[in-house]
């Protein structure tokens, strides 16, 4: 099958289950604020859980030289992200995986970004503490992670709060 045909098949496929949140694009300025808060460098591997159209990992690759991995349940959004990565010549540095963020392996991340909901963040917290190495930075847009106290908070360009977490030694 050609790449175009594979892309069209992905667009026709529905997600394997109902997404936990609706896709709301993160403004580029806010995505940049998130990456700055995490102090992303070219040595980082940035995972965006619920990556939508891939803009956060694209920015991490293009502006900061990081490698990026987007995990997205909706195959239509994965197809869009892959096409944008190709057009933006970021393909070698970014990967988009059509998967459930609760089931995906995120252990290689040095930075994780999320823009989910309070309930999803609470459900995700054990996975973050168990799968990520100590020192991994997590930035949440707008919603805190349950009872986990943030290391730092910052107001984004659009006025929403960004929360920075770091996986502690000996987690969970």
Descriptive report:
The chain has 172 residues and is an alpha/beta fold. Helix content is 33%, strand content 20%. The protein has five helices and seven strands, in the order ααβαβαββαβββ. A seven-stranded mixed β-sheet has the order 3-2-1-4-5-7-6, covered by helices on one side. Strand 2 (67-72), helix 4 and strand 3 form a beta-alpha-beta unit. The longest helix has 14 residues, at 118-131. The protein is globular and about 40 Å long. Mean pLDDT is 90; it is low at 1-11.
Task: From the structure above, extract its key features.
single chain; 172 residues; alpha/beta; 7 strands; globular; disordered N terminus
Topology:
Layout: H1 3-12, H2 28-37, E1 45-49, H3 55-64, E2 67-72, H4 75-87, E3 94-98, E4 111-114, H5 118-131, E5 137-141, E6 152-155, E7 161-166
Parallel strand pairs: 1-2, 1-4, 2-3, 4-5
Antiparallel strand pairs: 5-7, 6-7
- Described by its quaternary structure, the protein is single chain
Binned strand content: 15-25%
Order of helices and strands: HHEHEHEEHEEE
Enumerate how many helices there are, as a single number: 5
Strand order of the largest sheet: 3-2-1-4-5-7-6
Briefly characterize the structure.
The chain is an alpha/beta fold and 172 residues long. The chain has helices at 3-12, 28-37, 55-64, 75-87, 118-131, and strands at residues 45-49, 67-72, 94-98, 111-114, 137-141, 152-155, 161-166.
């Amino acid at each position: 099958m050609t790449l175009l045909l594979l892309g069209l098949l992905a667009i026709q496929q529905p997600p394997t289950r109902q997404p936990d949140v609706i896709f709301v694009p993160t403004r580029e300025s806010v995505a940049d604020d998130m990456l700055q808060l995490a102090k992303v460098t070219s040595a980082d591997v940035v995972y965006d859980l619920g990556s939508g159209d891939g803009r956060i990992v694209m920015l991490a690759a293009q502006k900061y030289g990081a490698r990026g991995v987007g995990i997205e349940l909706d195959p239509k959004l994965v197809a869009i992200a892959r096409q944008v990565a190709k057009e933006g010549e970021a393909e070698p540095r970014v990967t988009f995986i059509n998967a459930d963020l609760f089931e995906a392996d995120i252990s290689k991340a040095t930075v994780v970004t999320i823009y989910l909901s309070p309930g999803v963040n609470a459900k995700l917290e054990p996975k973050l503490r168990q799968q990520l190495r100590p020192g991994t930075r997590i930035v949440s847009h707008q919603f805190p992670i349950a009872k986990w106290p943030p290391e730092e908070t910052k107001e984004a360009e659009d006025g929403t709060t960004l929360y920075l977490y770091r996986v502690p030694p000996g987690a969970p």
